[in-house]
Design a protein that fits this description.
Blueprint lengths: L3 H11 L6 E4 L3 H6 E3 L3 E2 L5 H8 L5 E5 L3 H13 L4 E4 L3 H7 L4 E3 L1
Parallel strand pairs: 1-3, 1-4, 4-5
Antiparallel strand pairs: 2-6
């Protein structure tokens, strides 16, 4: 099943509505192998400390990781840190590719 979040994000980018951040919480080597074009890499271990300095708490953030469990954990950490608009990209990079979203690398 096509992930509606991935599809909606791709549509928003195509319409020139990029008022959000896509966050990749996988490790650096996974990110370097392939990622969503424009995704910001912040490994899960560094997420809470780096996100507070990198993003405004009201910023709309979409998270993906190695799997949905990692994305869920990252989403929860961000919400606990005071971020109010955080969503997961269910299915991660593969769902993004299925939706036809742009990627870098593999």
């Amino acid at each position: 099943m096509l992930d509606s979040v991935a599809h909606d994000l791709k549509s928003r980018l195509e319409l020139g509505q990029p008022g959000f951040t896509i966050l990749d919480v996988r490790d650096r080597s996974s990110y370097n192998t392939g990622h969503i074009t424009g995704a910001v890499p912040i490994p899960l271990a560094d997420l809470t400390s780096r996100a507070k300095t990198a993003f405004h708490s009201k910023r709309e953030i979409f998270v993906y990781g190695e799997n949905d469990e990692q994305a869920t954990e990252a989403t929860q950490l961000l919400k606990e840190a005071g971020f109010t608009h955080v969503s997961e990209i269910k299915g991660g990079l593969s769902a993004w590719k299925t939706a036809g979203g742009a990627t870098v690398g593999a």
